[in-house]
Design brief:
This protein is mainly β. It contains no helices and 37 strands. It has a four-stranded antiparallel sheet, with no helix packed on it. A four-stranded mixed sheet has the order 7-12-11-9, with no helix packed on it. A hairpin with a 5-residue loop joins β36 and β37.
Length: 444
């Protein structure tokens, strides 16, 4: 601003300058000055008579000039300053200092009284900087092993400074933590914002349920609840599925954050040995052992026994329920029959002198014969009297023993009694001793 000199202003100048000698006149409206070395002058009317010189002149036009930013940053005051070396300052805010701090937009003015009483007023309009609100965009939750991109969204930003040291608008993060960034715009206004990123704690994808299923039965396979989506290899979209066949079962789980997890379970069908009871026949007067295959975790016989084998002495129906290590049950039964009666009977008991006789047992279907003579056939031929015994084993393993005493028949008693001669025309009777079992004459 250019200010004219007031009337009757006296200035005393101690030194003369070559261009303004004593008695020279300054025209009204000419610029006055502040100075380092002052002298006095006498001013009358619109003319100024200098009585000295002015050294280091600065134009009064610059006396009132407010310096400072034309913008203020939100939350940060701006400093406005008037020129130095003035005698007094009066701001529109009421402050009387050379500099003031303002925090609101508006027009601020100051009246400056220079040395010698010159008064000058000037103003400056301060605008609020455009919105520099800092906001970080990007996911707040990341999936395990994945990344998310965080970006500082501020219009007109010229500088970024992330807590990671990055100086770009966007950064990629893979770990949980608190991420902050300081953004500076073209007017130097700074804004800071923060975002907390967490890693999704998706429940470990674990399929529960038996690894082995029993033949003809089903098993339920499940994964933890709470997921937003389930997708089994079977096409099912439920938390649990029921399976009845062996195979590999997998599932993909998606949680509320979109994070996916996959797991697998191999299911087999138990190869439980068929429940089969050994032995079906019991020998007279003996016992037999009934058994089922070993390796089961539990046995339960109809008799109440809980062992792999039981001994029975009577015929009847016997059943057992077998449970294997996988909890699979199998049931079987058998009818135990009593083997036929002891039929070990040796034929023949007498031997004729000088002859032989055949001793036989009637068990033609026996599996084994053992005679006292060492023979292992159904029949033996003997020529001497004595005790003969045999042990017979039938197809069921039942043994039967029998014996016989073979006696030698008495002396030859074949004597024909009767006349050796007969008279012509007569007959004679020939006889042998009675008691024989068979007679066979030559006459037929």
């Amino acid at each position: 601003m250019k200010t004219s000199l007031p009337n009757a202003l006296t200035v005393i100048a101690l030194l003369l300058i070559p261009l303004l000698t004593f008695g020279q006149v300054l025209n009204p409206g000419a610029s006055f000055s502040t100075y380092r070395t002052l002298s006095t002058a006498f001013i009358a009317g619109n003319n100024v008579l200098l009585s000295g010189s002015i050294e280091g002149v600065e134009s009064l036009q610059d006396t009132c000039l407010i310096k400072g930013n034309s913008f203020i940053c939100p939350g940060s005051p701006a400093q406005l300053c008037a020129p130095a070396l003035a005698d007094a300052y009066l701001w529109s805010t009421g402050d009387t200092t050379r500099c003031v701090y303002v925090s609101l937009p508006g027009t601020y003015s100051v009246t400056v009284t220079a040395v010698g009483g010159l008064v000058s007023t000037c103003s400056k309009t301060i605008a609020l900087n455009q919105d520099t609100t800092c906001e970080i965009t990007g996911n707040t939750v990341i999936c395990q092993g994945q990344t998310t991109q965080l970006c500082a969204a501020v219009d007109g930003a010229i500088d970024y400074w992330w807590i990671t040291g990055a100086q770009t608008q966007c950064i990629n993060v893979t770990t949980a933590g608190t991420y902050s960034v300081t953004v500076t715009n073209a007017n130097g206004c700074k804004s800071e914002c923060t975002k907390i990123v967490t890693v999704s704690e998706t429940d470990t994808c674990l399929i529960t349920g038996p690894d082995v299923i029993c033949p003809g039965q089903t098993a339920r396979l499940c994964v933890p609840a709470g997921a937003s989506d389930y997708w089994w290899i079977t096409g099912a979209q439920t938390q649990c599925i029921d399976v009845s066949t062996a195979g590999t079962y997998s599932i993909t789980i998606t949680d509320a954050n979109g994070c996916k997890s996959e797991c697998t379970k191999i299911v087999t069908v138990s190869e439980t040995d068929t429940c089969l009871i050994t032995e079906t026949v019991i020998c007279p007067g003996q016992s037999t052992r009934l058994c089922v295959p070993a390796g089961a975790s539990d046995y339960w016989w109809i008799t109440g026994a809980q062992t792999q084998c039981i001994d029975v002495t009577t015929a009847g129906l016997y059943s057992v329920t077998v449970t294997d290590a996988n909890g699979c049950k199998s049931e079987c039964s058998v009818i135990v029959a009593l083997s036929g009666p002891d039929t070990c009977l040796i034929t023949e008991t007498v031997i004729c002198p000088g002859q032989s006789t055949r001793l036989c047992v009637p068990l033609a279907g026996a599996s084994d014969y053992w005679w006292i003579t060492g023979a292992q056939t159904q029949c033996i031929d003997v020529t001497t009297a004595g005790l003969y015994s045999v042990t017979v084993t039938d197809a069921n393993g039942c043994k039967s023993e029998c014996s016989v005493i073979v006696a030698l028949s008495g002396p030859d008693t074949c004597l024909i009694t009767g006349p050796d001669v007969i008279c012509p025309g007569q007959t004679a009777r020939l006889c042998v001793p009675a008691g024989a079992s068979d007679y066979w004459w030559i006459t037929g």
